[in-house]
Amino acid sequence: MSNRYLKEKGIESLLFASGAVAVIALFLLCIFLFRDGILLFSEYPINSFLTATKWYPTAEPAHFGILPLFLGSVIVTIGAVIFSVPLGIAVAIYISELASPKISNVLKPVTEILAGIPSVVYGFFGLVILVPIIQNTLELPTGQTALTGSIMLGIMALPTIISISEDAISSVPRTLKEGSLALGSTKWQTIYKVTVPASLSGISAAVMLGIGRAIGETMTVMMVTGNSAVIPGFPSGLFAPVRTMTATIALEMGEVPQGSDHFHALFAIGSVLFITTFIINIIANYVKKRYRFNL
Amino acid sequence: MISNKLLKNMTIYFVVLLIIAIAFTGIGCVDKENTEDTDISQTSSITIKGSDTVLPLSQAESEDFMYANPYKSITVIGGGSGVGIAALIDGEVEIAMASREMKGSEIEKAQANGINPVETVIAWDGIAVVVNPENPIKQLTFEQLKGIYNGSISNWADVGGENRVITVITRDSSSGTYEYFKEEILVEDQYRQDALVQPATGAIVQEIAQNKGAIGYIGYAYLDKSITALEIDSGDGFVDATTENIMSGDYPLARPLLYYTNGEPSGLAKEFIDYVLSSTGQDIVSDVGYFPVM
User: Cβ contact (<8 Å) for A230 and B79?
Assistant: First the structure.
């Protein structure tokens, strides 16, 4: 008996250790990220880091203003949301409410394949195909703009948004929909007055996770947004080159000497990025929980 | 029954232990390798790391070298001059390739780490300033280039061209070409904030080939028919970016390509550098699109 007990306990603790790995990894990651990021502020005031408008890491004296990079990330993400949210929700509604099983059996796996394409492939496609199209149709000085990045990121965020909103929409109880139909409303009225509002929190969670996906994406934006560290106007900034926080880290980490201010500045950007995505995930979780409670 | 179960349990524990043991053995090995790697000159394999400009040359040279010496192995990695120099300072590589000279701060850091960087010129490279073939501008002075790159000139009309916004393109700051161009053209100034930053030379060529208003700078080896190189005037008249002008030293944007070693090269590193500097090696330099050392 005791043997069996030991075995149970042994396996349990083994699985506990495996579960703890994720937590420990996150914890260590935080420590290293913040430790190296904070070191910047012994040399460079935190106020200037957060509010200065210039990013010249290799100049003498160096300027580490994160504002243009932060706003660059924000504008690209907003663009991606504007592009992908309506489209994603429309697809989710179609798949779960309107499409015949035959069609939805094809559509669902295909949208999920989108998520499996490597980001560098998206980037290459964007650089070679989308950049010239944007430049020529809008007659811009260059096609490497925030808009180009937004469209690419929008496409990349679509699978997340579609599959989570589709889950939310199809989990709306049949009784709700049938009640609405029985009262004489049309299919469309049922969708936009009953089904979608009932699954709204699930859809919001999908949108938040889509944003999280977009803001953390690196390779694609680096290849198509032009990477100029300027503060973007809104909405005019959509049609000009911008540089995101992720692209800055990827572009500059190669050159940077270990332990220099520039090195710490890149870690500080990483910390800001981490905090941003952390907040977004917490909001998404909160919204998702509320939605479970309501049903 | 019980002994059977016990056996089974023992086996499971044993397997788990074995897995853990194997995992830790692996970690131990990595550490050991790092610490035992101090005497690099004796090994028959070396690593070369650094400038993307020198990369195609080093690759071609090492391929030929390894073909002639099948038991010697040379690993060539790109990433930018700064990356290579940082790796040399950290003692990770035997040779750092660079398209610029080491900065004072880098030399200090190397000496603090007990590394004594020694420079060898292995070839010359020209930097071509390039525009779209449809751009009527065919020549620029250093002053005009400085204005375009520091932000004081933003329209082609200001330098005698069409009324079109100039799209200024630079490399990222890990590129040796970025630093070299900054020192030669901008001197004290900074690159304009709204310049496009491209992560690779190929991306610069791609953008200029499709953008009529774009200007950029690339290593001479990357020049192709999709883009046009400008004539440059540093004060002594316009000079075209041609092989003859770069080799004669008339073209103002020519620079040495360098190998840095810790102390005078020795062992395989010396063999390889001697090979690069031999007439066979210098023929490869010309084949790749650079210019032999005189």
Answer: no
